[in-house]
C-alpha cells in the first residue's frame, strides 16, 4: 500500500530534519520532548483512573464532598440512563486529557499552532486510497471476529436492551464516541508524534506506537495486535501529510462497523 519511493522520501525528510535540530541544540536539554513525555504519562494515568466513575465517586467521598458524591452517584449509578452517563463521563475525561490539556500546552507553553500537530485540513485527503484499502480489509475481518464471545461481550460499549430503540441513546453515544476518537488521534498521531519528531525523526512513529498499543490491553487480542499495525500506518500517514484527519475517518468508520456488526450478531440491528 505504501510504495518504496514514498517511504524513502518521508524517512529521509524526517531524519534530515531531526538531524538538523539535534545539531543545532546538541548542548541543550530538549525541554519540549521532556514535557511531551511527562504530559503523555500524566494524561494516560488520569484517563485510566479518573475515567472510572466509581473512582471519581470514591475520591469525592474521601474529600468529604458528600453532596457532589451523592449527585455523581445518582447520575452515574442510579439514574435510568446511568450506563449512558458513565460512558459520556469516560469519553469526556478522555477528550480532556487527550485533546484539551495537550492543546493548551501547545498553545500556551510551546507557543505553537495546533495545525502543526495534525489539525490542518490541507493534505487531509492524501492517502484516501489507503483509507479505502484498509476498510476493504478491516470490514470483512470485523464481521468475522464479531461472532466471537469476547467481541460480543465488549461491543458495542453502550449495551442496547432487547426492547430498546437505537434512538436516541445509541446515536448520542456514537457521536460522543467519534469525538473521543478525534481526541485519541490528536493525542497519539498529533501531540506525541509531531511533538517528538524533531528529536526522534522517523522513529517517533514507533515511540508513539508503544503507549498506543498499551491502551488496547484488555481488549480482544486480535484488536490489540491490529492496533500495532494501524498505529504504524496511521503514524506514517500523519508524518507525511501533517494531518490526523484520515486517521480519524478510519477510526470512526471501523468503530461504527464494529458496533453495527455486534448489534447485528445480537439480533438488534
UniProtKB/TrEMBL annotation:
Keywords annotated in UniProt: Hydrolase, Membrane, Metalloprotease, Protease, Transmembrane, Transmembrane helix
Any one Gene Ontology molecular-function term assigned to this protein's record: metallopeptidase activity
One of the GO biological process terms: proteolysis
Xref: Pfam families: Rce1-like
Signal peptide interval: none
Transmembrane segments: 29-50, 87-110, 130-147, 167-188, 200-218, 224-239
Domain CAAX prenyl protease 2/Lysostaphin resistance protein A-like: 170-254
Protein name as it appears in the record: CPBP family intramembrane metalloprotease
Organism name: Nitrosomonas oligotropha
